[in-house]
Structures are given as C-alpha cells and as structure tokens.
Amino acid sequence: MPIRITTLTSLLVMLSLSTPVAAGSKYEHEVNDLSYGVALYHFYQDKYFSALTDLMIAKERKPIEDQGVYPDLLQGSLALSYGLHDEAKEIFEPLLDENTAPEVRDRAWFNLGKLRYQRGLLTAAEQDLVRIQDSLPSYREAERLNLLANIYLKEAQYDKAIDTLKAFSGDSTWKAYARFNLGVALIRQNRMQEGLAQLRKVGDLKPRTKELAALRDKANLAAAYALMRMNQPADAIKLFQRVRLNGPQSNKALLGIGWALSKQEQYDRALTPWLELKERSPLDPAVQESLLAIPYTFEKTERPKLALAYYEEATRAYDEKLRELDTITQAVKKGELLKALKPGNMGDETAVSLFRASLPDSISAPYLKDMMASHAFQEAVKNYQDLIYLDYVLDRWQESLPTFELMLQERRSLYVQKLPEVDKNAQLKAIEEFQKQRDAIAKEVRRIEESNDIFALATNEERDMLEIFGDIEDRLGNLSGKRSLKMQEEKYELYKGILYWQISSDIVPRLWTLKKGLKELDLALEDARAADASLKTAWQKAPETFEGFQVRIMGQQARINKLRKAISVHRYQQEQYLQKLALDAITQYRRRLNSYQIRSRFALARILDTMNKAGTP
Length: 617
Prior knowledge:
Blueprint: E1 3-8, H1 10-13, E2 26-31, H2 34-44, H3 48-61, H4 70-81, H5 85-92, H6 102-118, H7 122-131, H8 138-154, H9 158-166, H10 173-188, H11 192-203, H12 210-229, H13 233-240, H14 250-263, H15 267-278, H16 285-300, H17 304-333, H18 336-341, H19 369-372, H20 375-423, H21 426-451, H22 460-479, H23 486-505, H24 507-614
Antiparallel strand pairs: 1-2
Helix pairs in contact: 2-3, 3-4, 4-5, 5-6, 6-7, 7-8, 8-9, 8-10, 9-10, 10-11, 10-12, 11-12, 12-13, 12-14, 13-14, 14-15, 14-16, 15-16, 16-17, 16-24, 17-24, 20-24, 21-24, 22-23
C-alpha cells in the first residue's frame, strides 16, 4: 500500500539546505519504496548525511524502483549541499533528455544552473536558467529570476537585470532581494536616480517577515546614504528615520542622521542621535565613529573644553579596544574560535549545523559579526563542521570493525565445532533410505499394473469386505453337499461381483494418484539432495567465506584510515582558512580603530595647542 506524503519542492531543487521554503510551496507524490521512504524520513529530520547514505546504499545494493526521478533529484541536491559538484552533475545531466517530463527537466536545469552560478560559471549558468519553461513552483521561479538578475549584475548588464525584474509575479522575497541588489549596483555605477528608484520600492515594502523588515531597513539606509552623496541631507534624514530603532541597521541610521544634520549646520541637533549612539555597544563601527563626531561638533560650535573631554574619552575607548584586539588575536591564533565553531553534540546529526539565530560562544564573535555573516565564512564553517562530522562517523565505523572481527571469529569457532556433527548427521544420511523405500513402492506399482492386481489397491474398507467374502466362501465350501445352497451361492457371487466391479472401475484413478504421489516424492527427494549438497558445499566453502570477510574487514580498515588521513589534511586546511578570515577581519577592525585613534590624538594635540595659544585654562 503506497504512502502518500507531501514533499516540499525544495526537496527536489534545493542546492543549499539552509534555503527557506515558501509557505504553500509543495509538491505531492507517493512513496512506494521503503528505502526511499527511509531516506525521506532522515531528510525531514535534517539528517542529510544519513539521507544521502541511505540513497547511495540503496543504489548499490537494491536500486529504488517505482519512484521515478525523485530519488535522483534528492541525491543530487544532497550531493550539492556537501559540495560534491561533479557527482551532482553526473546525476542531473541524464535528466536533461528530451524524453524526460518537462517539470523534471526544468528542475534539473535549475539545479545545474544554480550549481554553475555558485562555481562562478556565469555564462553557462545563464544558459541553463533561461532554458527553463514554466513548470517550476512559484517560489523557485522567483529564485531563478533572482539568480538571473544577479548574473546580469555581475556582468554589468543592468538593463537586462531591470527587464528581469519585470518578469517577477507578486511580491516575493526573491524579487525584493533582486531589486535591492540592482539598486545598490546602479548607485555604484553612478546611475543614482535609477538606483534610488529601485531602493525606494524596497524601502516602501510592508514586511511580512523579519527577513523583509531587515531588507527594508537596508534599502532605506542605502538610499539615504546615496542622497547624502548627492548633497540632499534633508531628504536623506527622512529615509534614515524609517529605519527601525532596534533593528540591526539602527546604529548606522543614527550616525547618518547626525551627519545629515551636521551637513545642514544643525550641530546641536546632530548631537542628539550621536549621544544616543555613544551609549550603545562600543564594538560597533558606527558607535566608534560617533565618539569622534561628538567632539568634532563641539569644536565646530566653539566649545573646546567639551571637545577636549570627549576626545580624551574617545582616545581611552580606542586604546581599550585595541588592547582587547591583542587578546582576541592571540585567542584566535590558539584556536579559541575554532573550538567554538565545533558541533556541540556529535552523536546528534541534527545538531551538526552552522549557528543560525546567535553567534558562536567565542570572545572574538562580537568583533567579527559582519565577517561571520558573509557567505564565504558561512560556507567555510559549514565545510569545517561537515569534515568534523565525517571524521566522527568514520571513527565510529572504525570502532565497529573489531566487533565484526569478533563476530567472524565466533562464526569460525562455531563452524569448527559443528563440522563433525554435520558429517555424522543421521538426517542427512536418511535420504538414501527414503530413496530405497521409494524404489520399492515404484516396483510394487509396476507389478500391480502389469499383473492387473486390482485388489492390491483396495481400500481398508474393501479389504475388510474381501476378508468377509473369504469367510463366506469357506463356510459355503464346508456346507457344500449337505444341503442346497444355490440361492446363497448366487447371492455370494453377486455381492462379490459388485465389489470386484467397484474396485476395477476405480483402478485407473487410483493408479494415477499413486504415480502422482511418486512424482511428488521424487521432487521432494531431489530438493532434499539439493539442500544436502548445498549445505555440504556451504560448510566446505565456509573457510573461504571467512577469509573473504576477513579480507573485506581489513580492506575497510585500510580505506577508513586513508579517508581519515585525507579528512585530517582538509580539516587542517579549513582551520587555517577560517583563522585567516578571522585574522583578516580583525586586521581591518584594527586599522579602523588605529585610524580613529590617530585622528583622536591629533585632535587632542590640536585643541591643547589652540587652548595654550589662547591662554585658555
């Protein structure tokens, strides 16, 4: 009985397992194969390694049938999530045949297009994505258009990107991202009005989710800073004020409002957002910049003593953060960040995943938020955690090999003990006795048939009647001549004739039944001999089988050792890469702080010099 389940379309087209799934984006099909069902069960529990393993084992041992291309699509998507691009390509390319159903072919083109996009093959990715017709679910169609728009942006084909936006239907999240990216790209190309138009549309969205609310803030912030570049501070303030006060972009918005007011020479008003910003986390670059903006404003308003006090406070803050950076740099070099990135519970596959809602428990994390949010870092951590988990799995498998060896030894020992019993087994030798009995029966059947001995096939009841007739015949013989027994003798002959007729009329089916039984007995004996021969062969070949399993165990041991060595090498390389990303980000952070520190100290020196010359106490 097939099980009907609803599978998310992302199951079939997903390249990154962390991609969110749109509400209502579903595709329904039946599960008829147990192996496929098990793989789906693990997939929906976020046990992607187990799901991929299930599919690979099924393909090797007993291919999944009656499921069409769904297992291949799932396996290809899972392979892509682990970065196995070549394997995924081998799976997807056969699905591009003209004989393949359009909806399947489109999903395969989508997967290949996204794969090539991620590998930087933009021209090939564009060709794959434009081949797709109209069978993708709406959410994936929006993602396809977003990919195309990003390709056009990377290739500086801005007009094509604008035209792609027109193909979106509805107000999908992907459309908002595409419009935002387009707006930023146009502004960087100094096509300010066109870029602002795109950003304003995103900034006017009514957010349905936290994700869209954050994107709207980013759009308003980007548009506001673009207006600042265009020397339109008053209009910029309106957009800065649309950014949520408690959102992740609020610090940059407060900083921008201050500069916009300062640009209009409204210095006292500019101090309000900056003083608010000063009380926030000193790790944020916008807060650090505000520490300089405040005394700068006091300078502009000719309040040197206040400017001096705030410059001194800023200098102390920068010095403190630079000292903290020294500590953090040493911690990163010693592996503190790597330790924080390791999965907490290796036994739970669902726990082996990149941090989502919060930063890792590392002293460096607050300084590296922007870097940790980058795609490069997220992918690097995912690969790092995958390597750790794979090494854990191989370690568990390696630990199980001695158990297999013990099982093999027990089987071998049991074989040695049982072999003499098998040779002496009376049941195995009884087959020949059964054969002799069968031959005797067959000989008797031939005798009956040749001599027409119908009474040999009489039933027990008929035999009893024959004995009775024999007694009657003896009595009639004893009484013969003493009296007239003609009537009794006629009745005797009559009844005996009736019995003879009954037996003779049934002799043919009785012989047929007997022969049929002989044939069935022959088949049973043949099966018994085959079983006997198979058993003897199995016991004779058991030593070879034991050796074969021993060789396989040793081979698996060697293979696991080789894989663990390779994983160790790649894990070390990945650790070095992660540390490089972190240290590069810390270096950039330090440069910014050094710049602020130099400016602050220079300003201090300048103010002190000015005050000394003016005789200000």
